[in-house]
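WARN no homologs supplied; continuing
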Amino acid sequence: MSRQKTKKEIEGEKTRAQIIGAAVALFAERGYRATSVAMIAKQCDISTATVFWHFRSKEGLLQAIFNHMMDDIQSMMAEKRPAEAGKAPSPVLSASEFDYFVEQSERMRMLLAVVLEADAVGGHLPGLLRTLMRSYTELLSKQLQHTGPKLSEDEARDRATLFVATLAGIIVLRVADAEIAEPGKLVEKASKHLLGLEPG
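OK structure emitted
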């Protein structure tokens, strides 16, 4: 039986979530460089000391945002339809799921803004992006070996890498140019041609 969280722990989690949400919105709107910890704290109506207590630094806050993004991706994939007749669930995001990530989530706009300000983030950005992309690629590769065409470990990894690279490119294009219509449809085509799978 899991231990019940204390009121202080629950309030702490709510505060962390509030800080992350404010940081994502401000990074997306103003950019990473132009957003100060004081601005984030003001948005949450808390002190800067509270932000530093939870995340220690602005870079630590960015790391937490990236971790949160990866948790969401893993949760979305875990919630795919249950396996039937011994088949693994599809690891591919559907068009509607992808459209949600691009159209509704400020995190994608924030991610692009941060990428464009790599010099401001310094040495942290390559590691953060590498962790995010590698985690999703590995997750996709493992599931890919259990569905669709029979693939070796190397083949599954190669296809997953190509798909993730294409996915990242579509995200950047869509966020940078709102005229690109129905990016989710492009993901469906990438799923079929690069992975040999139909989206779930």
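Residues 81-89 have pLDDT under 50 and may be disordered.
OK
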